[in-house]
Amino acid sequence: MNRTAAPKTQVVPVGRQTDTEFFALFWRNKPARFGLIAFASIVLLVIVGPFVVPFTPEQIDLSAKGQAPSLAHLMGTDELGRDVLARVLDGGRLTILVAVIAVGVAITLGIIVGALAGYFGGWIDNLLMRIADVFYSMPALFVVILLVALIGPGFGSIILAISAFSWMTTARLLRASILSLKKSDFVQAARGLGATDLRLIVLHILPNALAPIFVAATLGIASAVLTESALSFLGLGFQAPQATWGGLLEEAQRAVISGGQWWRGLFPGIMIFLVILSVNFIGEGLNQAIQGRKEHTS
């Protein structure tokens, strides 16, 4: 009786308290707070913006082609008179969507691999970690470009290519957490009560080992945005007339160099910069909050 009651009275209240402290530590971090507000604002803007802007991304107006930013076109127009603001918002929605889905797939794969390696150990651990080492040893961007070139550009192929080289860090972080948690008293108590391996992993170990994964996920979004933008810039991403931030930068090359249309590359570049900066601030804030909570509870 006492053995089963102790974990309930000790673990649950402490977990709630440390979760509150975790969010307080994160919010007190000014760069992290700025990053969260900035990233949330950008996501809201690319979702709502296309319904507010009075132009569609593919709307051609030859009478307004090549115009600099003005009240009519806040980010100017391109060589076909298309509104750059509308194309930046539409492209941002696709770029961020691809990054989030690719990171979600990579995190899921990393959790599965890390959980199996950390919990079962032995030859399973060695095999899975050697596979991770093989993926680490490959030049990721080069192989991603090769995969997309072989499969062909498209939503699925881009997500597959990005996620295939983004799961290893998650797997290693989770494996390390599980190696320390699986010997904890609350895990041993649950095992003594007859909990299966699957129940131990999903209900008892994973909820206490996911904190570092959130850091990896936020940083993974920044990496995925860069990768998708690089693919689109090289012509291996989404094809015209579909806009993405990388594709807009590729379109802007000749316009900036030969036509002096500086706004064509400036605004997509600023959006990529802001997303990466804000996501990195969020990741650093999460990491510091995790370390602060560990110091408080130790």
TrEMBL record:
Pfam families: BPD_transp_1, OppC_N. GO terms for biological process: transmembrane transport. Its main location: membrane. GO terms for cellular component: plasma membrane. Gene3D superfamilies: MetI-like. It comes from the Bacteria. Residues 92-283 form the ABC transmembrane type-1 domain. The chain crosses the membrane at residues 34-53, 94-122, 134-152, 200-226, 262-283. It is found in: Cell membrane. Belongs to the binding-protein-dependent transport system permease family. This is Peptide/nickel transport system permease protein. It comes from Leucobacter komagatae. The lineage of its organism: Bacteria, Bacillati, Actinomycetota, Actinomycetes, Micrococcales.
